Amino acid sequence: MTKALLVALVKLISGANVRWAGCNPEIRQRIYFANHTSHLDAVVVWASLPAAVREWVRPVAAKEYWTANGLRRFLAANVFHAVLIDRTKVTVRNNPIEFMLEGMGQRHSLIIFPEGGRSSGEEIGSFKSGIYHLAKEKPGIEMVPVHINNLNRVLPKGEFLPVPMLSCISFGAPIILEPGESKTAFLERARAAICKLRPS
């Protein structure tokens, strides 16, 4: 019940119009990678998936934000089943990639944000290398680009209360890491795949 109510609330607040351009929602292991403009991004992408697919998808989120209070901790652990990453103490022993791979197992998909931090929403920043290392560790896995439009206005940076407004979530054609493809080439191609989904 909590999950169904939350999905309905998220859809109401975000006014998200969901568009599948180049692939269909399927129950299969994938990595959904999106531009990042708002604390609502992971929640809205997750809620935009059909219920049957959503059950197998785990957002990757910042541990410091989602453990800041009891409500966030409850939602992260019991509703989203989020993979929480500590971005402030990254070491060899505390490698985010290892946590993500463990969170995926053999069946779960992830929602990730390769820019790392949030951008203004006007431009998509350069991608960190994490998405490349995930692709290397999961050869042949489909990586689905997702463009998020207008969520930065629903919950602007520094604000705590969302402003109901229309947004658009576009899922594009999957890409995979090609044999021998360099990190630089893959990161540029992945970023371009999201840019192609921007509304004209």
* SSE string: HEEHHEHHEHEHEHEH
Query: Distance between termini?
Result: 38 Å
CATH class: Alpha Beta
Domains, number: 1
Q: How big a fraction of the residues is strand?
A: 15-25%
Shape: globular
Superfamily at the CATH H level? Glycerol-3-phosphate (1)-acyltransferase
Considering DSSP H and I runs of 4 or more, what fraction of the residues is helical? Answer: 25-40%
Radius of gyration: 16 Å
Output the strand order for the largest sheet.
Answer: 1-7-6-2-5-3-4
From the helix content, strand content and strand pairing, which structural class follows?
alpha/beta
Tell me how many strands there are: 7
Low-confidence stretches: none
How does the SSE layout of this entry go?
Elements: H1 2-14, E1 16-20, E2 30-34, H2 41-48, H3 51-54, E3 57-62, H4 63-66, H5 70-79, E4 83-85, H6 96-104, E5 109-112, H7 130-137, E6 142-149, H8 151-154, E7 167-171, H9 183-195
Parallel strand pairs: 1-7, 2-5, 2-6, 3-4, 3-5
Antiparallel strand pairs: 6-7
Helix pairs in contact: 1-2, 6-7
